[in-house]
Design a protein that fits this description.
Layout: H1 3-27, H2 35-46, H3 50-71, H4 75-88, H5 92-121
Helix pairs in contact: 1-2, 1-3, 2-5, 3-5, 4-5
């Protein structure tokens, strides 16, 4: 494994871990759209290519939603999801899939926002002579 591939692998795993842990903690608050901050923090800390950040935070968003649904008692949420799917006229499976997809996209959006703001937040060392 070359040094470039190793660095990208480490960046992928570290941003995945950061987004996974922060995402789960932020979902515990009950405000589900705060998961954007998990992707934002992972991108600010890791600062690698956008493709690596997008893929790792997207996977982290999916995993966070799955862990949240599996670990926590969500019996009332299942009933609510069934009612919403009945009102919307779609199956509850599609609604669950949309929930996973939206949380993954929100996490990735936070990472891409942070990646686009990084050049403005981090000064170049060559220009810091003043």
């Amino acid at each position: 494994m070359s040094a470039i591939n190793r660095n990208q692998y480490v960046a992928f795993i570290s941003s995945l871990a950061i987004a996974l842990i922060l995402g789960f903690l932020l979902l515990l608050t009950g405000i589900w759209y705060l998961i954007v901050l998990a992707g934002f923090a992972a991108a600010l800390i890791v600062q690698k290519r956008n493709v690596i950040l997008f893929l790792s935070t997207f996977i982290a968003g999916l995993l966070v939603s799955m862990i949240y649904v599996i670990l926590l008692p969500v019996t009332y949420e299942i009933a609510i999801m069934n009612e919403v799917s009945t009102i919307a006229g779609i199956s509850s499976t599609i609604l669950w899939a949309l929930m996973f997809l939206v949380s993954a996209l929100l996490t990735s959006a936070g990472a891409l926002i942070a990646a686009s703001l990084t050049p403005f937040l981090v000064k170049e060392e060559g220009n810091a002579s003043s």
